[in-house]
Input
Amino acid sequence: MGFDNNKIKIIHKALEALGKKNFALIVHGGSFPAADGENTGFGSMNSNGGKELIDYASGIFNAIQLGPAGKTKSCDSSPYTGTIFSTNPLFVDLKELTTKNWNNILSVETFNEIVENNPNKGKNKTAYSYAYKKYADALDEAYKNFIEHGDAKLKKEFDDFKRLNNRWLDRDSIYEALSIEHQNDYWPLWNSDVDKNLFAPETIEQRLEHGKRLVEISKKYEYDIDKYKFIQFVLSKQNAETKEYAKSKDIKMIADRQVAFSDRDIWAYKSLFLDGWMLGCPPDYFSKDGQAWGFPVLDPERMYKADGTLDKGGVLLKNLYRKMFRENPGGVRIDHIVGLIDPWVYKEGCKPKIEEGAGRLYSSPEHPFLCKFAIAKLEDLDTSIEADKEKRVKTLTDEQIAQYGALIEKIVIAAAEEEGLDKNAIVCEDLGTLTNPVAAVMKKYKLQGMRLTQFVVPEKADHPYRCCNIDENCWAMVGTHDNEPISMWAKAMINTHEGYLHVKNLVEDLYGDVANKDDLITKLTKDANLLKQVKLIELFASKAENIQIFFTDFFQIEDVYNRPGTSGDANWSLRMPDNFKELTPIDLPAILKQAIISRGKEFAEQNANLIEELSAI
Output
């Protein structure tokens, strides 16, 4: 980064003066860079390249926000459709398996061949399909050699790992066996009803039949099942070592829990989902038909028993969060927190529209089916407002707010506390418009939501993403993995009326003491680089105690990681270039200096010496 220890201390002082408790770099797992000569086509925090990025971040950042880490499908690279328990095999550091730490169970020749034939060698892009196949072959070689040549200590660790994680590992590995049996890893296409419903028998006869089939598959694919478990063992061991390494560098790793369940999870826990219903988003400005995500919804009637204790659905969810908090003491980002509090659901095969039967799972007392799950009563609704609107639930008692927040309190917060953490280890993705029940739960439990400054609505003076309205208890950012870099946003705003509205607010919020405001507004509406800089200043000038910045914004990379609604290897493929240390990052000292000045004359005078120190960097 080009900063010596003294300059890093000055930056830390500035962040502290501005009230920032956390400063996190957002980098999804596959986007980590590769060390020289080690680019296999996919990134991993466990690789030497991953450790180089951790070293680089150390001193400026105190956290790295990861993406979801679940196993993805052969035909879909999106990390947001990965498994909830199993980890993505593409995060294995193959290089380490060629060392004596693992008794050289992978040959150097195999590793070098993967690197040499990587179709995206020299590019900052993953090669998903290539890596998916090559890693499978390499890990098969590694497993065979582990069985034949692995040392007793590692084999004992492997046996312990299987015993301690059998609750989820057995089902996920059986799915792997059945994927081989049917030559397809998408269970709805399997041609056996028994295999499709192996863990969801409905009668005693089916339970017996499915039990026999389970024994049959376990014997027939014993090798593949154990290999699957071995790969998860390698990942568990490498992940733990990497996180200890990061901790030694004063970097905490924040995990990401996606709202979706993978095909593997749906199959494994089918009886716990609400039959025929899916999670999505209602129609809005961006989608007139709504967003039909196709993600299943946990059955509310399987979450709690009559006495209030957790039923099987609740136990599943709590086990997931306990595992995540145990493995990620730096915290967990929860994608679409609305899905745990007041989800929008629709009938399978329909659009997520009111006229096709969609509604809020817990806020639809007038709905012919969803009414049985309703927490809000008819008298709590403003029926002049449509069911998809955020203000429709107009009144809530304390008891109702607690009911809406039951999953948060009894599962998420409880899981964190049982693993020695608290609610501050929870990052809530609450972007977009929130319903009144969600807002009430967030307030009751003082949860940390997000403020995305790129998405501020400039016409609304009280918009929560505007600098002057951002409170302390949140995570602020200019963009997430779903946004274009802030530099691209700034270019799109130049010489537009919308850009002028944004600029007017920025000048009002950040340059209140400047005499020539009109001149500054004119300059900002024409200068994209300056507008980008001011948007970053806004981030640090806000009262938000926690800041996240996506790697494209920090390293000034003008490329997009994810274009929502897009599939294929080209999407989710952007990586840090292997020579990332040669990139020019944002001018953080200058941004922090102006953020201090933008807090007002009195604040600037109190930090006059710090302003001088930042000017000298």
Remarks:
- Residues 269-447 form one domain.
- The chain has 24 helices and twelve strands.
- The chain has a mean pLDDT of 96.
